[in-house]
Amino acid sequence: MLSTIIQIILAFMFFKAAVPKFTSNQQVEAFETYGYSQWFRNITAIVEVGTAFLLIIGIWKQQLAAIGGLLVLATMIGAIFTHIKLKDSFSNMVLSIALLVLGVIVLWQNSSALLG
After folding, report:
1. How much is the average pLDDT of 49-68?
2. Cβ neighbours for 22, distance < 8 A, ≥ 6 positions apart
3. Cα–Cα distance between 95 and 22 in angstroms, integer?
4. Alpha-carbon gap, residue 90 to 94, rounded angstroms
5. pLDDT grade for 1, boundaries at 50, 70 and 90
6. What is the pLDDT of residue 10?
7. Where are the alpha helices (DSSP H) in 1-116?
8. Is the dihedral angle over the CA atoms 91, 23, 58, 112 positive or is it negative?
């Protein structure tokens, strides 16, 4: 039950973060500030949408939830790395850290489906 609630929250957050990456000039400028190419912005958005779908489908298929959790980890490690690279304040990293922790919980709760 805990994993399901977390998966819904993560799916919502990832989908909400992905849409502006496809549509917003502010995201174009943000990725330039980060020192990342625009193709990477598009790949990030695609990964975020895919992760959201995996987490939702993972409510019924644990293996997909585990893969979604793993993608949350990878994405949030990248986000935290970017914050560190930019010498961003800790307060700006809190959401990425919280999402990372939630991703770990989803992965842990569903890891048995991945391993066996």
Report:
1. 97
2. 42, 45
3. 21
4. 6
5. confident
6. 98
7. 2-23, 25-34, 38-57, 62-85, 90-115
8. negative
Q: Which residues contact 75 (CB under 8 A, 6 or more apart)?
A: 14, 44, 47, 48, 51
The C-alpha atoms of residue 104 and residue 41 are separated, in whole angstroms, by: 24
Distance (Å, whole) CA 34 – CA 31:
5
Q: Could you give the CA distance from residue 6 to residue 66 in angstroms, rounded to a whole number?
A: 12
Backbone torsion region of residue 88, taken as left when φ is above 0, otherwise alpha when ψ lies between -120 and 50, otherwise beta: beta
Query: Residue 69: how many CB atoms within 10 A of its CB?
Result: 29
**Cα–Cα distance between 75 and 9 in angstroms, integer?**
16
